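Structure tokens please, single chain.
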Amino acid sequence: MESIKQTLDDLTQVFNTKMNEFQKELKVEFLTPMNCSLICRHKLGCPNKDKPRVILIKFRDLTLRNQVWSSKINFKGSDVTISEFLTKKRHKIVLAAHQRFGVTKCWTRNGVIIVLGDDGSKHRVSAMSELNLIPGSISSDIEASNVSPNVEVVNPSKVITRMKRTMKK
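Here you go.
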């Protein structure tokens, strides 16, 4: 029993030293008085031993939000990620952009999706059809030559089994 207690104390000490080193590497001093600058914060999902829960934060002060957002580069190499809460449509577009271009070549800023093309130019994307037209995309060569940007491509193997429900308010 005593050895287990000693092991837990050692683990706690190692964790605290690693966390202090991590905080020093961040070089972010503005995070300490942050409690009064938050409107709300929620933990999403159920507690799980395999992965930590997502924390949703809404900031009162836009300058603090922008400081936190710009300091997210300091989290490279760690398990901490910061991302925007997007609409379902924009979230799907970001996921598709990550698959086609890679995580380093697409990002969001204030809800706007930005993709870096092969030529180095930045493209603002608001629809999946715009994403398909960017040079360097996997499907851009196929879809750009076969279909106009206003026509939606229907996959013949995808069968619609029922109509989509509409919500009444």
